[in-house]
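Write out the bound-state structure for phosphoenolpyruvate.
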Amino acid sequence: MRNKVIIGNWKMHKNIDEAVTFCKSFKKYSNEMKKHNVLVGVCAPYIDLASIAKYSKDMIIGAQNCHYEDRGAFTGEISHSMLKNIGIKYCIIGHSERRKYFNETSNECNKKIKVLLEDNIIPVYCVGETLEEYEANNTKKVVEKQIKEGLKDLTTKDFDNFVIAYEPVWSIGTGKSASTEIAESVCKYIRDLVAKLISKEASDKVIIQYGGSVKTNNAYDYLHLPDVDGVLVGGASLEVDSFKELASKAL
Ligand code: PEP
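---
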């Protein structure tokens, strides 16, 4: 049986003190949730990571991006091996905000995913269509291209620890969450694609999340769909008590 995986994406929020305070009051709860096969935690801004990496044994602590080279003349970047060096275990790749504002492509995501897997860091690969693409009925076509390019050359073993997040761009930060029918149908489509492109075993193992305006009042519905193994949460992950309440809907 697959674990439920609930990840908060803090985006560009929380300084070091705020991040440490959050993790200190979250770790007991996340350890408790683990006993029920629910893994919970956050992907924080780079600057917070060295200070909260020690909580990795208690909760998910992840980055929101990385560079695929080890080191070099890439001003302003942080490499996958730097994340590994401080004990980071998860990394979001290809979030729609990075695709939109930093022109990140699925081919670049593929390079990042490969090096993360080598470092035993779990990629949280984000895919999803824009409003225009949704309205043109192109969701599955767009997602298929992102999956094919992002997962190129991966093998069944790579899916022992792998998260894919389906996040329709029109639902992120807008308060307009996708219906549970859409979430289930696209997540199932992604699972079937993984079976076709990689193997049935990989598709049985891969964790597939829904993300986009998940809040305490709708989390239960997503968390109990057959092909949705968790949620990726932006705004509603910033406050400890309400994030705990949201994650508890997995039980
Ligand atoms: C996100 O940042 O991935 C996200 C889903 O944001 P929100 O929950 O705020 O829509």
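---
Residues 16-34 form the longest helix (19 residues).
Strands lie at 4-9, 38-43, 60-63, 90-93, 122-127, 163-166, 207-211, 230-233.
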